[in-house]
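User: Structure please.
Assistant: Input sequence and predicted structure:
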Amino acid sequence: MNICFIPIDNRPVCYNLAKDICAIDEDIELFIPPREYLGSLTKYANTEIIFDWLYHLPKMDAFIISLDTLAYGGLIPSRRINDSLDEIKLRMKRLKPLIRGKKVYAFSSIMRISNNNCNEEEKEYWKDWGKKIFEYSFNSSKYWHPPKTDIPKEILHDYLNTRKRNFEINKMYLEWQKEDLFDTLIFSKDDCAEFGYNVEEAKELEALGGITKTGADEIPLTLLARAIEKNIKIFPVYSEPGYKDCISNYEDVSIEKSVLGQLDLGGFNVVNKEKDADIVLVINNFVEKQGELVMDWDTPLYNKRFTPPSKPYAIADVRYANGADNGFVNQLFKSEYPLPEYGYAGWNTSANTIGSLLAGIKVKYMAKQYNDEAFKRLQIIRYLDDWGYQANVRSLIKEPCDIKELMHPFEGKVFSKLKTPIFNVDYKYPWNRKFEIEVVIH
């Protein structure tokens, strides 16, 4: 199966993870632009060269496209770039003849509104006015009229114009959908609050026939699962069944709705009994409020004895955002049982974790030429990143540095439990910040 995959940017979870998942089935050939073509924290993707790369592809069975990469140069550039609406429309006209008549699974973001004074992923003025812009948006949506504000007029004008431009591009994609250019078109809701311009835009896109999903970075991976058009029966089970109506951080739906939404988008069939399932999806959910390792928000750790389901299973660890639940993972590694046959994930938001995990489930279950070494490699990376680094080592360092010695204890436990050779592992900071690492297995 030949799959064209255009990621949001060059982060390991957007670029490497897709490659690592597809490597589980040697029958899948993933065509992905060279990493240097894609955007980063400070660099925009080279859209001209990516379009040229698209023109020269052989016959594809499916196209999975992050439209923000082609329109703006990436997810972060979509909030920063100053190109006009007409310039972006002209650029995107080149895509239509390339995808007409093809199997195309595409997504575009609804521009987020972060509630902080941090401009790392926003325009320069966000460092001074980010929280006030969030409040202006929140109250405009909640009370149906713009409130009084001391945000400088030129800044507010620029922000609102950027939003309007991106919204018009999203409405353009809905017009394309009427021409049957997309098999699936998704609009992502990233970092949502209860009210805001992004919430209103989502409602309007839905009224026009669009489909919106909470999440962002994982959606290309969920679409990868969808592109493999085979049904798998999934039985979801929660570690805290009495709390599955609670809402995750950075999302606007309950954890149960987030799970069911990702399963639906990934093309899975949900069943109500374990005996009817092909695979059990274990969700390690939170009690009342999701923890957040980056913000140091705590929540009760998993403190029960874990007994795996009788069917093959996978684990979505969402008790904390931005990393694993040490209570749950420690139980897994102390247990006499092997690790889950279909994988573990505890990456970032609940939607990120679930969507990326489902892609691995679908590829492994449907593999025509299964590669167990590739699957174990993927699991090594997830445990070392989501558990070893994000939930433990990250809190011990102040800035990017050499963490090899700090990671050694986790490597030993992972290699032993997975029964793999002891690999030499390096750790990089691809965006020169603590937020993400790249696990490099030699």
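The mean pLDDT is 95.
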